[in-house]
Each structure stands twice: as structure tokens, then as C-alpha cells.
Amino acid sequence: MSKLVKKDKQKNEWLEWGKAIFIAILLAFFLRTFVFATSIVEGESMVPTLQDGERVIFNKLIYLVDEPERGDVVIIKRPVKNYVKRVIGLPGDTVKFRNHHLYINGEQYEKTFISVDALNHTGNFGPIEVPDDKYFVMGDNRAISKDSRNGLGFINADDIVGRSEFVIYPFDEWSMIK
């Protein structure tokens, strides 16, 4: 094989590698910008579901094609920081908490994601009617959570930027979020 043919082959190989790397970077940028992103859980308001310092991947695309559902763990965009909370009340729902039980539209809501201790430390509130295009959110650790009851207020649909899907850090705690 001549030196010229070898040089052309080597040049083509570098060009192919360059294209592959460029496409991979473009794809990663697209996915990070429009589909998936990460967030770090700050504080203990979502214990036992999420722990302080865990990194979660959230789906940014889901709420462009669907609405948040009761029980979704969502990322809420705020000017200073983002919050991770669970959707409890949907637009038009009436929410109240009495005697260690959560009621939505007059029916007791059974929760498998919250501890009995957290229920015992949740004070009575409501009934509260959730306005149209707003959501009522709470942390799973109700005793210490800043949420729709005490500081965050009702959440605009536009402020919900995604649904938490997976815990990816620490590595030994990889799991889907339920």
C-alpha cells in the first residue's frame, strides 16, 4: 500500500471519529437540555423516599405531553432553588388532614410512601380547594417539610419542570422513585 493511500485512510478514520464524538456531544446536549436533567435533594423533607444529598434524574419531557398525577415526585422551579416534593392535590381537588389522615375530595387517601411517624407529626389543616392550573404538594417527611401548607403555597403547572425518575447517586442506592 502506498503512503498516500495509507495517509488518506488514516485521515478518514480521524474524520469518522471526530463525527462520532461531535454527534455524541450534540445528543448529550439535546438530552440534557430537553429530556433529562439531574437535581440534588437538599434537606430531609422527602425522607424516607429520598435522602439529603441524593442525586436524582428527572424527566423534563413528561409534562409537555401529560399532566402531573397524584403521587408523582416532581421538581419545582423557584427563583432561589428547586424543590423536590410529591403531588398530593390536583387542580379542583379539596384537600384536608384530620386526625392523622389525609382526605382528598372527602375520601381518605392511603399512602404507602410515608411513615406512620410522619403522619403523627402532621397537624390538621384544611379543607383547602386547589385552584385551576395549580397543584398542592407535600414532602414525605411532613413534620419538617416546607410545602403547600406552609411556605410554597399552590404550585403553578408551569413551575413543575419534571418528574423524578431515578436515584443515581450515591451509586449503591440506584433505584426508581415510586
UniProtKB/TrEMBL annotation:
It is an enzyme of class 3 (hydrolase). Residues 14-169 form the Peptidase S26 domain. It catalyses: Cleavage of hydrophobic, N-terminal signal or leader sequences from secreted and periplasmic proteins. Pfam families: Peptidase_S26. One of its GO terms (biological process) is signal peptide processing. The chain crosses the membrane at residues 20-41. It is found in: Cell membrane; Membrane. Keywords: Cell membrane, Hydrolase, Membrane, Protease, Transmembrane, Transmembrane helix. PROSITE patterns: SPASE_I_1 (PS00501), SPASE_I_2 (PS00760), SPASE_I_3 (PS00761). The active site is at S45, K85. Gene3D superfamilies: Umud Fragment, subunit A (2.10.109.10). One of its GO terms (molecular function) is signal peptidase activity. Its EC number is 3.4.21.89. GO terms for cellular component: plasma membrane. It is a single-pass type II membrane protein. Belongs to the peptidase S26 family. PANTHER family: CHLOROPLAST PROCESSING PEPTIDASE, SIGNAL PEPTIDASE I. This is Signal peptidase I.
